[in-house]
Design goal:
about 200 residues; mainly alpha; single chain; two-stranded antiparallel ribbon
Amino acid sequence: DRLEGRDEMDLMRDFAIPLPVTVIAELLGVPEERFADFKRWSDAVVQGVSLGGGEGARPPIGAMLEFVRYLEELIEERRAHPADDLVSVLVRDEAGGKLDANELMLFLIVILVAGNETTTNLIGNAIHLLLDRPDDLAAVETDARLVPGLVEESLRYVSPIQMLPRVVTRDTEIAGTKIREGEHVLVLFASANRDSRKYS
C-alpha cells in the first residue's frame, strides 16, 4: 500500500527487507512499533554467526542480548496473557512438556533469523536473475503459475545462504585434511546445485 502511486522504488529497501520481518513479527505477536528492532536484531544474529561480518569486526553482542531480553519479556507476557499468536502456542507447548525454556527461546530466534534473512535474499536474487533474463521475466509476468518454479529454481541456482557453521563430532579427514573432534568448520555449499562436474 505504501508503494501505490509511486513511480519508482528500491526493491530491497522498500519490499524485500521489510516484508519477511513484518510477516514474522506479526506471526509472533510483536507490536508494529518493534518491527524495526526485530530487523536490527535479526541482522545482529546473522552477523554473529557469519564470522562477525568480516575480519576484525566484532559481532554486535549488545543487540543480540537486547533481542534475548525482549523475547524473555514476550514469553513471560504470553504466559500471563495468551494471545492469538505463535508465541502463545509455543508457550502452551512448553507448559505441556513439548519444549523446554531454552528450546522455546532458540526456536523463536531461528524463526526470525532464518525466515528473515533467507526470504530477503531470495527476493533479491530472484529479481536479479529475472532482470538478466528478459524472456523468463516476460513469461512469469504473463503466467503466475510459473512463480513456484521460479522460487524453487532461484533457491537452487543462487542459495540465499552460502555456508553453515558446524562443530565436528569425531576425528575425520576430508580431502587429505585432518579435522579433529570439537573443531569448528564452515560448510560452503554455494555451488552445490550448480556443480559443473554434474550440471552442464
